[in-house]
């Protein structure tokens, strides 16, 4: 890095600024993430599950260390591969990665070239192993599969990019699944931009159902999805695995006629008050093999004549009222926050590689980075801070100035004495070190 000459400041002519203060890392708080990853045996899991076809005869950086480097860059907020060139001798990155120099941007680019579709599947296996480990510690026996699709813009000639009419732009159309109870990122699949929302959803969720039925059984699985996923393929696979679902239906003429049958108005009706009615009935569309339970929410605003109808399909029993069904569905809105966190905080939608497979791999590393921080936040943060977004976590806990002091026997990381959130930092570090895995 080039050293700048001293620049005098206008507001105080006796003060100047330069960048020759020494090797002082600004991300010393990343030691928290490293300590947590060590506790969950991340490196061991990665090496057990991921096998990359590597024909290099000589190299300084193995594939696993490059992947970990990319994860730490994402966690710290550095989204470009070229950030590695500036961070190449950053003391904190050298320490958490255990190497004298980081892999350069060209080395990272060559890693993307070595990855295959099999490696994408293996990265999903890594994610699943980590989720299972964390779920065992949380001791939770319920899951909510929140399904959705999102959009990743592209700005060039990326492979399989296409125009999406809904978003009115070119890009990819990933399919994602989160656990609605914990925010864990269960799975993601990159798709071409013109693929319809529910295309392939059956093949997407079946491995999740099979895993949580056979490998790590859970008591209850609930699937939530918007009207883009209102397809018999999804209903039937939920019923096959005896799981519950609440899925919104798009309004149409037939559904509208059914809803209007339950609207009753007498001669003394008070039109000045808002009315909300919940109805449950049985409905079968022509493409369905059997009838299913339909819940209807009819809302008439004050001083309006016509009610607005909403529809949710479910297989929850009649003991669960239609109002509770709609309340359960409405909580799906938190998933939008998970998607925003993955995109804005971990660059899940960063698709600047020319090949489709490379962009899929980038997406999977963003997924892993998201989950590492979500695991740490839900397991080790204090009650008041469990809701922190990654931008706040970086500001409060990761972006800390530090100094490395090395002797013959040990290395001491001396953090800034003026770190405002140091009490929280050491509390979380203590919680990480106290973790006990089953």
From TrEMBL:
Organism listed in the record: Carnobacterium iners
Protein's name in the database: Transposase DDE domain group 1
Start and end residues of each Transposase DDE domain: 9-436
């Amino acid at each position: 890095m080039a050293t700048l000459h001293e620049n005098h400041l206008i507001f105080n002519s006796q003060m100047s600024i330069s960048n020759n203060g020494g090797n002082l890392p600004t991300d010393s708080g990343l030691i928290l993430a490293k300590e947590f990853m060590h506790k969950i045996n991340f490196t061991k899991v990665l090496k057990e599950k991921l096998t990359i076809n590597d024909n290099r005869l000589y190299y300084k950086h193995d594939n696993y260390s490059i992947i970990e480097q990319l994860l730490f860059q994402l966690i710290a907020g550095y989204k470009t591969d070229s950030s590695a060139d500036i961070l190449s001798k950053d003391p904190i990155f050298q320490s958490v990665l255990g190497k004298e120099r980081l892999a350069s941007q060209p080395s990272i680019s060559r890693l993307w070239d070595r990855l295959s579709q099999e490696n994408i599947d293996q990265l999903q296996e890594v994610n699943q192993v980590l989720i299972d480990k964390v779920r065992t510690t949380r001791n939770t026996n319920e899951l909510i599969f929140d399904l959705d699709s999102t959009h990743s813009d592209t700005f060039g000639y990326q492979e399989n990019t296409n125009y999406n009419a809904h978003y009115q732009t070119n890009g990819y159309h990933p399919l994602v699944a989160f656990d609605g109870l914990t925010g864990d990122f269960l799975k993601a699949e990159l798709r071409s931009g013109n693929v319809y929302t529910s295309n392939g959803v059956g093949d997407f969720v079946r491995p999740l159902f099979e895993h949580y039925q056979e490998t790590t059984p859970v008591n209850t699985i609930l699937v939530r999805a918007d009207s883009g996923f209102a397809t018999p393929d999804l209903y039937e696979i939920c019923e096959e695995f005896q799981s519950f679902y609440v899925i919104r239906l798009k309004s149409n003429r037939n559904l509208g006629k059914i809803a209007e049958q339950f609207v009753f108005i007498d001669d003394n009706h008070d039109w000045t008050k808002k009315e909300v009615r919940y109805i449950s009935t049985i409905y079968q569309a022509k493409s369905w093999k059997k009838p299913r339970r339909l819940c209807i929410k009819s809302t008439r605003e004050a001083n309006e004549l016509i009610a607005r109808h909403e529809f949710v399909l479910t297989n929850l029993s009649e003991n669960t009222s239609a109002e509770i069904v709609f309340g359960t569905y409405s909580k799906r809105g938190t998933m939008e926050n998970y998607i925003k966190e993955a995109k804005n905080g971990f660059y899940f939608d960063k698709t600047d590689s020319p090949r489709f497979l490379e962009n899929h791999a980038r997406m999977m590393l963003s997924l892993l980075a998201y989950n590492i921080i979500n695991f740490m936040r839900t397991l080790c943060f204090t009650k008041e801070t469990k809701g922190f977004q990654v931008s706040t976590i970086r500001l409060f806990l990761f972006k800390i100035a530090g100094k490395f002091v090395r002797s013959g026997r040990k290395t001491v990381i001396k953090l800034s004495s003026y770190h405002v959130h140091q009490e929280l930092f050491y509390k979380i570090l203590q919680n990480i070190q106290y973790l006990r895995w089953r």
